[in-house]
């Protein structure tokens, strides 16, 4: 039996070890974890915040100062193997676009929803503002009661569709 002194890529505990390493590194450099999302790190420099958003091994850095962003990138690359992909155009399936003149930032999930609609063969479905009338009530009595109804319902990938929509919602 051997005891590993460091975690190896591909093992079950590897993601947890990577997260612990990253977290301790960020906290040791005066970043704080957000109370609301543990994947967001914040540091205030000269009264201006720097945000680092981490999702598995993808990150997004946002700050008013490009100099502070460069410093953070240099600091991170001194500890981790990383690749700078430049200005963010996409993260977690969301497209990012900017209007630098007016200082606006836009997030869009349009392509994600197009893929979801195609996966469930609904790309030609008629768009409505509310898919079900507000007065319509669902009840347990509407659940399938016969084997034929259950079989018919099981052919529809409902749980997968709901999961896809909930991912976009979160």
How many β-strand stretches?
7
* SSE sequence, one letter per element: HEEEEHEEEHHH
Low-confidence stretches: none
Radius of gyration: 23 Å
Give the strand content: 15-25%
Q: Specify the biggest β-sheet.
A: 4 strands, antiparallel
How would you write the strand order of the largest sheet?
A: 1-2-3-4
User: How many domains, as an integer?
Assistant: 2
Your description of this structure?
- By secondary structure, the chain is an alpha+beta fold.
- Helices cover 35% and strands 21% of the residues.
- It is built from five helices and seven strands, in the order αββββαβββααα.
- The protein has helices spanning 14-28, 66-79, 110-119, 147-154, 158-169, and strands at 32-33, 40-45, 48-55, 58-63, 90-91, 94-99, 104-108.
- It has a four-stranded antiparallel sheet, with helices on one face. A three-stranded antiparallel sheet has the order 5-6-7.
- A hairpin with a 2-residue loop joins β5 and β6 (94-99).
- The chain is elongated and about 65 Å long.
């Amino acid at each position: 039996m051997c005891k590993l002194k460091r975690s190896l890529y591909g093992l079950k505990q590897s993601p947890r070890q990577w997260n612990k390493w990253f977290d301790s590194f960020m906290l040791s450099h005066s970043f704080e974890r957000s109370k609301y999302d543990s994947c967001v790190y914040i540091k205030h420099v000269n009264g201006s915040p720097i945000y680092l958003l981490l999702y598995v091994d993808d990150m997004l850095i946002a700050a008013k100062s490009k100099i502070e962003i460069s410093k953070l990138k240099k600091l991170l690359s001194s500890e981790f193997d990383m690749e700078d992909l430049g200005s963010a155009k996409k993260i977690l399936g969301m497209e990012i676009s900017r209007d630098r003149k007016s200082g606006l930032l836009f997030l869009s999930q349009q392509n994600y929803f197009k893929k979801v609609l195609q996966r469930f063969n609904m790309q030609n479905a008629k768009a409505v503002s509310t898919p079900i009338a507000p007065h319509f009530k669902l009840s347990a009595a509407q659940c399938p009661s016969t084997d034929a109804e259950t079989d018919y319902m099981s052919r529809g990938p409902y749980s997968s569709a709901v999961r896809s929509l909930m991912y976009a919602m979160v």
